[in-house]
Design brief:
Layout lengths: L2 H10 L7 E3 L27 E3 L2 H9 L6 E3 L24 H6 L4 E4 L4 H13 L3 E4 L6 H12 L3 H18 L2 H4 L4 E9 L2 E3 L4 H9 L2 E3 L13 H7 L3 E4 L4 H13 L3 H4 L3 E3 L2 H4 L5 H25 L8
Parallel strand pairs: 2-3, 2-4, 4-5, 6-8, 6-9, 9-10
Antiparallel strand pairs: 1-5, 6-7
Helix pairs in contact: 5-6, 6-13
Length: about 325
């Protein structure tokens, strides 16, 4: 599945109601996730056999110390390394319900509702198998998800310190010193044939806001709008971030935008971040945010130095 297709599917979910590890109504009679999972004394369901239907959920489960409880996942779950040996029951969009039920899970974790899960809902309810959704829309939702998973699997001794470390890293990124500096505009390129970017997505907006940056296409009404070169030149972003797996393709994209006289490309304000880090709402998104903030800070400092020396920065 291509980068653009996978990412556009993820972005489409931003149009759905926000749900963070919320169990269906029938399961609320069995357990209710505490608001403060790390200090709660409420008894945990202590799940032992979980199925993850999204790669970011697989990463969250491992971060919460519950990796050993995963009995199956989807084909795109490739991190951490241990996840690559797990049985597969579909690709996240197409699932195999018979195989899923044969595995006898005591909980299923999904990214967004779909037709297969909807058709399975009566059977899951009859069997008492809770179906829980996770779709973070803010960076701080990620460590909170880890805390909740730690409570659900009774692995809080692992999950809570991990979550706190992630919160501390996010707090360090959102420093007042960074907020007092000029905001930098960023263009995020998902793919190039055709060219796509990210529109108004709340999680990516939070990533950029943490770095005191803004999305050049934040006001688009489309989740993953197509980009025309002349339109991007008019918007004139100060930083370009591409999501390309190979260094050769990254160089090709740099040359492409240099040929189109994009000032950020000409100035060398052109960087790459792995799409698996930047577009999966799991723990590694904090790594990507730190990386992006470093690029933004570098460009901001360069433009400040250029202004001090009377030179024209990439964007006035």
């Amino acid at each position: 599945m291509g980068i653009v297709h996978k990412t556009r599917c993820w972005l489409i979910s931003a149009l759905l109601p926000f749900t963070v590890l919320v169990q269906p109504a029938h399961a609320q009679q069995t357990f209710s996730i505490p608001d403060d999972p790390c200090s709660s004394t409420a008894p945990s369901p202590s799940f032992q056999r979980a199925i993850s239907l999204a790669p970011h959920l697989t990463e969250l489960l491992y971060a919460a110390g519950a990796g050993d409880a995963i009995i199956a996942t989807v084909s795109s779950s490739d991190h951490p390394q241990a996840a690559t040996t797990l049985p597969r029951i579909g690709d996240g969009i197409t699932l195999h319900p018979e195989r899923l039920l044969e595995l006898q899970p005591d909980a299923i974790f999904a990214w967004l509702p779909g037709s297969t899960l909807a058709s399975m809902q009566p059977t899951l309810e009859r069997l008492g198998i809770p179906l829980l959704y996770s779709r973070p829309t803010r960076l701080h939702d990620i460590p909170q998800e880890i805390r909740r998973l730690g409570w659900l699997f009774n692995t809080r001794d692992i999950a809570c310190p991990v979550a706190q470390q992630l919160d501390d890293r996010l707090d360090a990124l959102a420093s007042p010193a960074r907020k007092d500096k000029p905001t930098v505009s960023v263009y995020l390129e998902l793919g190039h044939d055709p060219i796509y970017t990210i529109g108004n997505d709340p999680l990516i907006a939070d990533v950029l806001a943490t770095c005191n940056a803004s999305n050049s296409y934040a006001h688009s009404t489309v989740a993953a709008p197509q980009v025309l070169p002349e339109e991007l030149l008019r918007r004139n972003p100060q930083v370009v971030i591409v999501s390309q797996p190979s260094a050769l393709t990254q160089q090709e994209r740099l040359h492409y935008w240099q040929q189109h006289q994009l000032p950020a490309a000409i100035a060398g304000h052109f960087f790459s971040i792995s799409p698996d880090l930047l577009y999966r709402p799991g723990p590694r998104l904090i790594d990507a945010t730190e990386q992006l903030c470093g690029y933004v800070d570098h460009v901001r400092a360069n433009q400040h130095a250029a202004a001090q020396h009377g030179k024209s920065p990439a964007k006035p």
